[in-house]
Structure formats: structure tokens, C-alpha cells
User: Which sequence fits this backbone?
């Protein structure tokens, strides 16, 4: 799964003849100096690396999975006052600093991420408070919904994180063990690509998808 991100970047920036080499950077690895190279590559629009915040599958012993793993990498759990404002706002670990730098320097697009990660949310709330961002949207999140009530709840939650949700519909589950139908995500991506003039599928398939969206 992780390797597909590097492959996708290589395909997106390659010319079809000379391979475009994109490698992983594991923030949980000892070679953390490479994170500096990652950030520098973003400033020149030349993404040569994919940054894996919580570890890489080739280093399973360093993956962030448990509560103990989180505490060892991020430090103390986020704390808030009675009004919901962040209290422990010090960036006292590398993971907190990297998240802060990512969130403040680039508009982020979250896909397949519910934004329920307490440490990630904490960084967004710190930025909202320190920089007095108000209600301005700075990031984007592609989210699925099943009911209008769920959609409103997600939109309200993300507005407090200065993140604009981009929704697609997922039908309700009807049988035990049934998996959520995320085909709406593919249609949404095709639609967004078409609106910005990016070709991601052959013309015939694009026409079929347009007809599906019109139904």
C-alpha cells in the first residue's frame, strides 16, 4: 500500500520515457535529517520523496500504532481548557514540529483520513488559536457521508479545524459485514479532474462517468 504513493508520484511527474524516481522518507527512522530535504523539495515543486509520518512498512518495529507509540513520538496527550482551547501548545517533539510545519506552510488535502487523530487535530487547533485564523478555510478533506445529519456534523467539526470538506455520498449499509461503498470517491475525483482540465482516464470512460454523474 505505502509503495503505491511513491509510484503514483513517479507516474505523475515522469515523462513516460525516463523514470521519475520518488523514494520514501520514514519519520520514525533514525535518518531524520532527510525530512529537511523533503521540505526543501516542496519549495521548488520537485517532489522526490513521500513523507510517512507514522512509519513505513519496511520498518514495522518503528510503526506508530499503540498509545505507547504515540506518547513516545509525540509526548504528552493534548489538553484543553474548559472552553476547548489548547493548553499544552509546546512543540516538544519532532513529530509535532513536522506536523506544525506542514500545516502552516501548505494547504493540505486529506483523503481517507477522518481527522479524528488527537495529535493532528491538536496541531490544527494550535494554529487556529495562535494565528487567529477565524473561519477561513486553509485545508481540504474529502469525506463520505450517508445522511444529511452526518454531513452537517462533519462539516461543523472540520470548520473548527479550518478545513473545508468535499463530500461524496456512500450508501447506507444494509447487511452485516457489508463494506462501505466508496465508488462515489472515484466519481468525485473524475469530476474534479475534469473541472481543472486534467485527463485521468480515456475519453470513452470519461464520457461514461459524466453520464453517471448526471443520473
Assistant:
Amino acid at each position: 500500500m505505502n509503495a503505491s504513493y511513491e509510484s503514483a508520484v513517479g507516474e505523475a511527474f515522469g515523462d513516460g520515457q525516463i523514470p521519475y524516481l520518488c523514494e520514501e522518507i520514514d519519520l520514525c527512522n533514525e535518518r531524520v535529517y532527510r525530512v529537511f530535504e523533503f521540505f526543501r523539495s516542496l519549495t521548488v515543486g520537485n517532489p522526490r520523496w513521500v513523507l510517512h509520518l507514522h512509519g513505513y512498512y519496511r520498518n514495522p518495529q518503528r510503526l506508530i500504532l499503540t498509545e505507547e507509540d504515540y506518547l513516545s513520538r509525540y509526548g504528552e496527550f493534548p489538553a484543553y481548557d474548559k472552553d476547548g482551547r489548547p493548553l499544552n501548545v509546546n512543540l516538544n517533539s519532532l513529530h509535532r514540529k513536522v506536523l506544525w510545519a506542514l500545516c502552516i506552510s501548505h494547504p493540505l488535502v486529506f483523503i481517507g483520513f477522518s481527522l479524528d487523530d488527537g495529535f493532528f487535530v491538536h496541531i490544527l487547533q494550535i494554529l487556529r488559536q495562535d494565528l487567529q485564523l477565524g473561519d477561513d478555510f486553509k485545508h481540504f478533506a474529502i469525506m463520505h457521508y450517508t445522511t444529511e445529519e452526518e454531513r452537517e456534523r462533519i462539516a461543523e467539526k472540520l470548520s473548527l479545524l479550518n478545513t473545508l470538506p468535499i463530500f461524496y455520498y456512500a450508501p447506507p449499509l444494509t447487511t452485516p459485514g457489508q463494506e462501505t461503498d466508496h465508488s462515489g470517491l472515484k466519481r468525485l475525483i473524475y469530476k474534479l479532474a475534469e473541472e481543472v482540465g486534467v485527463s485521468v482516464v480515456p475519453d470513452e470512460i470519461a464520457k461514461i462517468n459524466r453520464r453517471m454523474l448526471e443520473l
